[in-house]
Amino acid sequence: MDEEEFGYQKGGFYKLLPFLSLLLVICIAGVYFGNLLFGNNSLKVLLELREKEREMSQEVKNLMSENAELQKEFFELKGLEPQ
Length: 83
Description:
Low-confidence stretches: none
Shape: rod-shaped
């Protein structure tokens, strides 16, 4: 039984092996980078969290200044002078 009887060429699969390996590596890299950019721990999520942190920091500053003004008003109403 010769391999050529069954329609096989010698080394046919081994000639395609580098191309199939490259295709597999490209697919894996595509899935990895897709997950990196659009997954649960993605760049998009990181940027959204940074924006939310910036907004919350600004809100904290606003609330602190409002609190200081209200404390001043409170002490004035009680007849005490803030130091």
